[in-house]
Amino acid sequence: MAACAAPRNVRLQWAPRAPRPLLLWAVALAGLGAAGTSIALALTSDHVPEPGLQAALQTWITLPYVLGGLIAWWRRPGSRFGPLMVAAGFAMFASSLQWASAALPYTIGLAFDLVPAALFIHVFLAFPSGRLERRTERVVVAAAYSVAAGLQLLKMMLGGVGPDNLLAVVAEPAAANTVQDVQLVTLSALALTSVALLVARRRSSGRPLRRSITLLIDSFALALVMIAVLLLAGALELSAFETIRRVTFWTLGIAPVAFLIGLLDARLARSAVGDLVVELDADPRPADLRDALSRALGDPSLTLAYWLPEFESWADLDGHPVELPAHDESRARTLVDRDGVHLAVLVHNPSLSDEPERLDAVSAAAGIALENGRLHVELRARLAELKGSRGRVIEAGQHERQRLERNLHDGAQQRLIALSLELGVLRERLAGHPDAMSRLDRARGEIALSLEELRDLARGIHPAVVSGHGLGVALESLAAQAPVPVRLAVDLDARVQERIEVAAYYVVSESLANVGKHAEASSVSVDVARANGSLVVEVVDDGVGGADSERGSGLRGLADRVEALGGRLRVWTPRGGGTRVRADIPCA
Amino acid sequence: MRVAIAEDSVLLREGLARLLSDAGFEVVAQCEDADELLRKANSHEMDAAIVDIRLPPTHNDEGLRAAIEIRDQHPSIGVLVLSQYVELGLAMRLLADSAEGVGYLLKDRISDIPEFVAAVERVAAGGSAIDPIIVSTLLSRRRSDDPLAELTPREHEVLELMATGSSNQGIADALVITLRAVEKYVSSIFGKLGLPSTGSESRRVLAVLLFLRS
Question: For residue A483, what is the nearest residue in chain B, using CA coordinates?
Answer without folding.
Answer: B142
